[in-house]
Amino acid sequence: FRDLFCQRDLAIAGQSYAFCTGAGSIVYVSLREMAVRGFRLSLITRVCLSAGTTVSLRAWEYVRGAPLLAPMHGSKSAKAAEKIKRMRTLTEV
Q1: What is the 3-state secondary structure (H, E, C) of 11-74?
Q2: What does the alpha-carbon distance between residue 62 and residue 93 come to, in Å, rounded to a whole number?
Q3: What is this structure's pTM?
C-alpha cells in the first residue's frame, strides 16, 4: 500500500527486505489458518516460526553477500533525476 500511495515502484518485487517480510507473514498467516482449522499450534510457535523465516532469509542474504532479488534499474526516481539534469543543461545554455 505504501508504494502505491507514494507512486513508487513496488518494493515487494525488487527489494529483499520486503520479500523477506512477505515470506515471514505468509508463514504466520498459514500457521494461523492451520490453528483456526484445528491444528494445535500455540501463538509463540507461530510467531517464532514466522520471525525465524524472516531473520533466516535476511541472514542468508547477508552471508551470501548479494541481494536475494536483483535491484530494480530504471525506476521512476532515476528517470525523474535524469529529466531534471537534462532540463538544467538546457537552461544553462
Answers
A1: CCCCCHHHHHHHHHHHHHHHHHHHHHCCCCCCHHHHHHHHHHHHHHHHHHHHHHCCCCCCCCCC
A2: 47
A3: 0.60
Please choose, from the candidates 68, 65, 52, 51, the residue with its C-alpha nearest in 3D space to the C-alpha of residue 17. Answer: 68
Of 9-13, 24-28, 32-36, 87-91, minimum mean pLDDT range:
9-13
Size of the chain, expressed as the number of residues it contains: 93
Is residue 54 a contact partner of residue 16, using CB atoms and an 8 Å limit?
no
Give the HSE-up count for residue 59: Cα atoms under 13 Å, Cβ half-sphere.
6
Tell me what percent of the residues of the chain surpass a pLDDT of 90. 37
The grid coordinates of residue 78 equal 532515476
Is the pLDDT at 35 greater than 90, yes or no?
Answer: yes
Residue environment code for 56-87, b if the CB has 16+ CB neighbours within 10 A, otherwise e: ebbeebeeeeeeebeeeeeeeeeeeeeeeeee
